Amino acid sequence: MPAGRNGLVRDAVASCIASEEFPSIRRHPLPTPPCLRRGRSNARGFTLIEVLLATVLLAAGLALAFATLRAATITSQRGELMAQRSERMRAVEGFLRRRIASALPIGFGVDETTGTPLRFIGEPDRLRFVADLPDYLGRGGPHLHDVRIVDDGSGARLVVSLPMVLAGEVVEDRDARPPEALVPDLKEARFRYRGLDDQNQLGDWSDQWNTPDRLPLQVRIDIQSADGMVWPMLVVALPQSASAGGTGEFR
Predict the structure, then answer these.
(1) Of 246 and 234, the one with more pLDDT
(2) What is the spatial distance between Cα 238 and Cα 217, in angstroms, rounded to a whole number?
(3) Residues 6 or more apart from 71 whose CB is under 8 A from it?
(4) pLDDT at residue 151 greater than cutoff 60
(5) Which of 21, 51, 63, 234 has its Cβ near the most Cβ atoms within 10 Å?
């Protein structure tokens, strides 16, 4: 077929496609191949449900992380507080043990009724005795150790005051240190004393020491803090009680 005729045929076919004579060819394009459809499907974005689910998971993870951090902080604070309490407890118990064990048979007054020297006064909420004071606590030398429970309306406290003793009497010092709080948050404290009974055997604990001219053999202190913590029972032996005839009998 001549070349000119072929060109005429192509022009006619193109004109028919563009016209209404073959609408199905123009209106219905060829289907997209499956490989291209998969590519388009893979390129689509996240759905709203997927975005919400991811947000919820992220929020849950952050909440869990913050909760874990808070729990760790609280645990650390509790541990630090318990360590501080234990350290304070050991310090107070050590101070009381050393001071009571160093009690001396030295008088700090005279009983006006009997005329006997007062060497140890023991009551349920107070005890008084003389012991040498270390230099780091004051001037040194014999001082009266007055350990007692006080309640000034703001709560009970276990305090100690340390006035000087000279020639069997308490010396008032204007520059004396105020009473030191050993247990500032006290709920209950109790002092007990023990010596020998009538059969020269170790007697029972008593709330009152009835022979103030003698030292007891042992002193017991029970302490409970305001938060309900019960301290370990403190029992202290007085080595100097034997040298002063510390076999006080309970009457």
Answers:
(1) 234
(2) 6
(3) none
(4) yes
(5) 234
Tokens of 104: 């001396």
Q: Six-digit token pair at 75?
A: 């645990």
Query: Is 19 in a helix, a strand, or coil?
Result: coil
* Domain assignments of the chain as residue spans, ordered by start: 46-251
DSSP 208: S
CA 5/CA 14 separation, integer angstroms: 15
**Between 210 and 172, the higher pLDDT residue:** 210
Whole-angstrom Cα distance, residue 244 to residue 105? 6
**Selection from 119, 141, 121 nearest residue 245 by Cα:** 119
CA–CA separation, 143 and 229 (whole Å) = 31
Q: Given a cut of 80, is residue 26 above it in pLDDT?
A: no
What is the percent of the chain where pLDDT is above 90? 37
Query: What are the C-alpha distances in Å from 60 to residues 52, 73, 137?
Result: 12, 20, 58
Q: Are 2 and 9 in contact (CB under 8 A)?
A: no
pLDDT at residue 141 greater than cutoff 90: no
